[in-house]
Amino acid sequence: MLEELGNGSGVIAVRGLTTEALRFLARARMNVGEWQAIFPVRTGAGDDELPPILGAYAVEDGRVVFRPRFPLAPGTVYRVRFEPNAGEPIEAEFDVPLADAPATRVVAIYPTTATVPVNLLKMYVTFSAPMRFGEAYAHVRLLDSEGEVVPDAILEVLEELWDPERRRLTLLFDPGRIKRGLEPNLTLGLPLREGESYVMEIDAAWRDGLGRPLAAGFTKAFSVGDADRTTPDPTRWKITAPRAGSGDPVDIAFPEPMDRALLDHMIVVVGPSGEVLDGRVEVDAAETAWHFVPSRPWPAGDYTLDINPDLEDLAGNNLAHLFDVDLSQDVRLSEDEARARLPFTVR
């Protein structure tokens, strides 16, 4: 007997197997491919050409259980087949009902700055709720100043680059076209052209994790400036310290926009005793301003901003090395050499 447990929880189970069969499956120590051969779970009614969805299998509580890697998508038909070595196969189809929730919308496209370097490495699209996996590149378009789609600018990655909650998608401009000396760069050139204007367009037909289209489409217009081939320099950052006893933030002002997603976790505040402080990060001013708001008021003392050397600017340059560099001139610092520790005092 096949059943889907928990109204969209994603757990699919086979009940009613003999104790002997359960013991055999538990001892077999099958890999994922072997499990998929006898217990595939697919989307789409009656389509054997689609590959099984990814997930983990287990024998537990008198059942054979499948837990998908990503939550089941409401509004989607799933087809399940269990076919052990002996006995008749068991098949079932079901769908997950759509939930009554506010329509998902695009919150922002980063970078939010109006002008980006010609060797821009990536953009982020953020959403108000989790999105469906596997549909991104059908609904994202880069348009030139004439409204025409720019071909092959965005690198289509088989495993779309989502954050764990599937609320932020990373769009990569083809790195092979950005890095000088590589064949795609030599034959096709950079994806963007200096002095030109573009629009990143998201269409409303993109479905969210509940299978519903977006509340509306979204566009982000930007122009293209000079190439950025310098590493970020923390000695040029301006730090504003808070007052002792206050809950005010410590602020950093950058001379250039920085990578929005990396700013969330690549700068930490270290207290006078060497402890990492709890608090929340806020970023604004087109990604040129970083603020850390502590969870508790500041005691007086000497603090340090510990900067991970992997923190990048918009062109993918980090504190250790350049992303877009002539291969004959590639110089890389070690992690210890590149890590920056910026002191500030709370009085």
Keywords:
globular; Immunoglobulin-like; four-stranded mixed sheet; mainly beta; 3 domains; 21 strands; about 350 residues; 6 helices
Compile the SSE list and pairings.
Elements: E1 2-5, E2 11-14, H1 19-28, H2 32-38, E3 41-43, E4 55-60, E5 63-68, E6 77-82, E7 90-95, E8 106-110, E9 115-117, E10 122-127, E11 140-143, E12 168-172, H3 175-178, H4 183-188, E13 197-202, E14 218-225, E15 238-240, E16 250-253, H5 260-263, E17 267-270, E18 279-284, E19 289-294, E20 301-307, H6 335-338, E21 340-346
Parallel strand pairs: 9-14
Antiparallel strand pairs: 1-2, 2-5, 3-6, 4-5, 6-7, 8-10, 10-12, 11-13, 13-14, 15-16, 16-19, 17-20, 18-19, 20-21
Describe the structure.
This protein is mainly beta. Helix content is 10%, strand content 31%. The protein has 6 helices and 21 strands. The chain has helices at 19-28, 32-38, 175-178, 183-188, 260-263, 335-338, and strands at residues 2-5, 11-14, 41-43, 55-60, 63-68, 77-82, 90-95, 106-110, 115-117, 122-127, 140-143, 168-172, 197-202, 218-225, 238-240, 250-253, 267-270, 279-284, 289-294, 301-307, 340-346. The strands form 6 sheets. It has a 4-stranded antiparallel beta sheet, with helices on one face. Strand 18 and strand 19 (289-294) form a beta hairpin.
